[in-house]
Amino acid sequence: MPSILITGCSSGYGLATARLFLARGFTVIATMRTPREDILPPAANLRLLPLDVTDEASIARAVSAAGPIDMLVNNAGIGAAGAFETMPMARVRAVFDTNTFGVMAMTQAVIPQMRLRRAGVIVNVTSSATLAPMPLVAAYTASKQAIEGFTGSLAHELGHFGIRVKLVEPGYGPTTRFTENTSASAGAMIPEPYADFAAPVFARFAAPALTTRESDVAEAVWTAVHDESGKLRFPAGPDAVALAPAG
Hints:
This protein is of the alpha/beta class and 247 residues long. The chain contains eight helices and seven strands.
C-alpha cells in the first residue's frame, strides 16, 4: 500500500484527509504535535507520530521513524487575523515559522528519498486567501503566498526526477478549529481606529455565502495526489472554486 505522511492531523482538514486515505487503503502516517489515539480508528495501516514542523530535530525524528514516504501532505498551519499595524512581529514570525518555513523544512526532509526513487508526490495546502485579496489577514496571506510561489517553482525543479508537486487551496471553513482559533485571537488585534472597518468584515466571516467542508479539502488532496496531468492548483470548496481563475 502506498504511504502518505500528513502534517497537522489533530483536527480539521488534516484529520479529514487522514480518515479519507485510511478508508481507501493507504498506509497513513498521521502526525501532530501531541498524538491522540482517540481521533482516528485503530487500523493496521495507521501510524501516529509526534511532529512539530517548526523544530528541525522533530522533523528529522519523524521522517526517520516514518520509513519510506511515497506522498507528503504539508497541511499543518496556523492563522492570524487582525489589523497588521498592531500585529506583534513575534506573531508574524510564528505564522511564517509554521506556514512557510515548516512546509519548506518538511519538503526538504523528504526530497532525498523521493529523488533516489525517482517517484513521489508533495501536496502543499495553502488557502483561498491566495486567490483574491482579503482584508485583515495580511500576514497570513503572505505566509501562504510564499508557498504558492515555492510550490510552482519546485514543481519544475523536482519534475525532472519524477516527483509531482501540487497545491490544494481550501476555502473558508468557519466550523474548523483552525478558524475558531484564528477568530478568537482576531478581536485582540483590532485597534479602535479600525473598528468601523473590521466590524462588517468579521460579520461576513461569521456568515459567509459559501463555505468549505473538511471533506472538500480531503477530496481535493486525493485528486491532487493522483493527478498526472501537470495541473498545479486544486481549489477546494465552492468558495475557493468561485475565486480561482478559470481553467
